[in-house]
Write a sequence for this structure.
């Protein structure tokens, strides 16, 4: 059909950080049916090895606040573990834009954004990137998993649940999802 443009396929999946860097994938979730939110995250090296994972049930807040909590907790955990080069990925473009200053938040900068920026400005190297949800499946699972926990305490997981192990395996070995987008006129 003329005038409809052409389709381009985008392959979306987890990509390892460059050598010497650690990647934090973080996410937040809100379930309006139970009025609960949670967050989760994974710290992985350039070989895809999971160095640390966490999940936390937060309580009642919106999805963006849950995303903020996931980023803040993950960065704080990385900092306490002595990581010096951190690549942070979130599937919330708005959050990444707020943290990097690419989004006008007027004078009302949320406290968690201030905390994340403070962490970023410490003596270490931090990069922020947006990642489509399809490339962030492992932490999406964690952010929803914590809603099943009885405690509101931070859960740093010593052993990974089987479902999460499978998702990480698929990430490391390059499993991708694809989007088909029509461009042009």
């Amino acid at each position: 059909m003329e005038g409809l443009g052409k389709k381009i396929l985008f392959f979306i999946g987890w990509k390892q950080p460059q050598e010497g860097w650690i990647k934090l994938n973080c996410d937040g979730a809100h379930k309006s049916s139970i009025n609960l939110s949670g967050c989760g995250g994974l710290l992985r090296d350039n070989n895809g090895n999971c160095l640390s994972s966490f999940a936390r049930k937060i309580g009642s807040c919106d999805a963006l606040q849950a995303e903020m909590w996931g980023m803040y907790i993950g960065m704080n955990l990385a900092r306490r573990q002595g990581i010096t080069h951190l690549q942070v990925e979130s599937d919330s473009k708005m959050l990444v834009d707020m943290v990097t200053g690419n989004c006008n938040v007027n004078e009302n900068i949320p406290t968690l954004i201030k905390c994340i920026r403070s962490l970023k400005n410490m003596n270490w190297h931090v990069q922020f990137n947006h990642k489509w949800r399809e490339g962030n499946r492992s932490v999406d699972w964690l952010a929803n998993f914590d809603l099943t926990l009885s405690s509101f305490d931070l859960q740093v997981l010593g052993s990974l649940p089987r479902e999460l192990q499978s998702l990480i395996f698929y990430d490391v070995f390059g499993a991708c999802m694809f989007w088909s987008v029509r461009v042009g006129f």
